[in-house]
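Local shape tokens:
==================
===
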Amino acid sequence: MEEIQSQSDAYRSSSSSASSPASRVPSSHFFYLRKPGSLRQPISFEDSPEWEDTDVEARGDEGGGDTINVATPASPSLSKLNSGSLASPYGSYILEGAVLPNKIVGASVVWRDLTVTIKGKRKYSDNVIKSSTGYALPGTMTVIMGPAKSGKSTLLRAIAGRLHPSTRTYGEVFVNGAKSHLSYGSYGFVERKTNLIGSLTVREFLYYSALLQLPGFLFQKKNVVEEAIQAMSLGDYANTLIGGHCYSKGLSGGERRRVSIARELVMRPQILFIDEPLYCLDSVSALLMMVTLKKLASSGCTLIFTIYQSSTEVFGLFDRICLLSNGNTLFFGETLACLQHFSNAGFPCPIMQSPSDHFLRAINTDFDRIIAMCKNWQDDNGDFSSVNMDTAVAICTLEATYKSSADAAAVENMVMKLTEKEGPSLKYKGKASAATRIAVLTWRSLLVMSREWKYYWIRLVLCMLLTLCIGTIFSGLGHSLSSVGTRVTAIFVFVSFYSLLSIAGLPGLIKEIKMYECEESNQHSSALVFLLGQFLSSMPFLFLISISSSLVFYFLVGLRDEFNFLMYFVLNIFMSLLASEALMLLVATLWQDIFWSFLTTLCIQVVMMLSAGYLRIRNDLPGPVWIYPMSYISFHTYSIQGLLENEYLGSTFSIGEVRTISGFQALQNIYDISSDTNSKWSNLLVLFLMAVVYRFLVFILLCRKSSLLISCRCRRVGTEFTS
């Protein structure tokens, strides 16, 4: 402790010049937003600032960018804030022309002695969160701040009950004073990574999301969507494609982030959790985002989110801050009280520095390496570092100061008040029926397919070009016995390369799976609903490819000119595409990465082509592996066999003037088929069953992932976690 005290005293003396009145810029350059018509200016803990009343004006640029014009008003004193005499603040940044959302009955959230551990190789070790205590009130924004890998997202997920099963959580979480489960619709959770459908407009995307989430009538959902659009200040972009198209630009990063938040707002949640709302946003977009969230909080919603770093203006919008470092809570309380806390611990914030920058500089251990590399460097003010002590010592000092401070005692008292009496429980909001969700997903996927030219229409064009190439190469074969081998080659090449070209649809499938996982994590969809919707929506497109390519190939090569044989050819190719699509869906679900999915699917398709019985008759293949099981699990085998049976069973070929042989005999030494005339329908049935089996395996994988999420939510029931 003597070492800590000595270094702390050294820092106080070194920072006095930086915070002296003579070295400050005018106070109007820095401000903190607190309530309508007023902002808090920076506080020097050595001198009392002069408060001046001014106005605030903030508006979004009418163009595509995120811009804000700001002026600086005044704020009440810090003593009023710490005494709790202020009402729930509402940020005075208001977008010009914005409509405030309807009032929401928020909910208080309390977490007490929350500890999260990660499962190690042998036992649970590595405390990610260590005895964190805090609360969030309706109509306020509570931010969890800290350097990278400090436990911000883990704490947020622990409060929301969305941790991975490999973690263990100890402590208590209360909602309106009760240890209860967060019911469907009462809260929303926005992930850090945004998953949106670029080929839909903002209004379309939110409308389909509302159809997936909400029961009731269509006009009610349209009203909810319009409210969400207005709440997130997206009115100017409501009819803009999220991803843009070849002639126009899509939404910016900040606008996409607001769309992902608006998706959760269609349920009108009482509590909203957001992981890194300012992720990958520039300073102007970040300020516009926080102004919008402040407006949302003013409607009564309880906002809890994580943040890594913020500007001075954004920092002033926060109501409460939970500061973490290596899982330790260094402070919880009002934002300006955090500045006082750092000053009391010996680390006052220089007037020229952003508070969040100052906090992270003091508690981020990565700066030690920077100081070690630049220890001989000096800036104009002398030292390269504004904190003249090791960050580990600073963390210990801040933690010890907080535990013995009045702020920690005030937090404990507030937690006791919020938990001593149970308030109204959060009501369950009904879901849309499974049939409705299947219909919505089917129609949405059909709309996406009609607009995604890269993944669907180019694939159709490539299939037609491939068909023309194969058809022209094998055209004019005739129907003699000598043409049988060449015709078998043409059918093998068509089926094999056609199924191989279907790999072009992998990126679209991966996007669908990621979208499903995003919606399923918030209980907007399910594995069965997703698979049925994806299956129904893919059938028209696959049938379009099948019939267009089959007709071209069939007549160019000159196969049997009877309608029933032609229809069987189309159905066979259609079933082959269904099986190939289901196989790709299975691989995409396993990897969820374009490169590895491409590589795996390509290898599987090539192995299936080798064992299909053309390069070597199936009965002559080596028994282990190639016959059993490869030739039997290759859909190429059943597709080619069915097409050849359709073409040659019932046909005859003349040998000389007297002798004739059947088509079955003509194929004996070329390809292994059955002499049963109904065998081709059995092959068609096998292709359909293979498509069903592959999708059933996908269903098992998705259900397994869903069960892990459900187990996380079930562990949240009672909201008291023990080993």
User: Anything to note?
Assistant: The chain is about 50% helix and 10% strand.
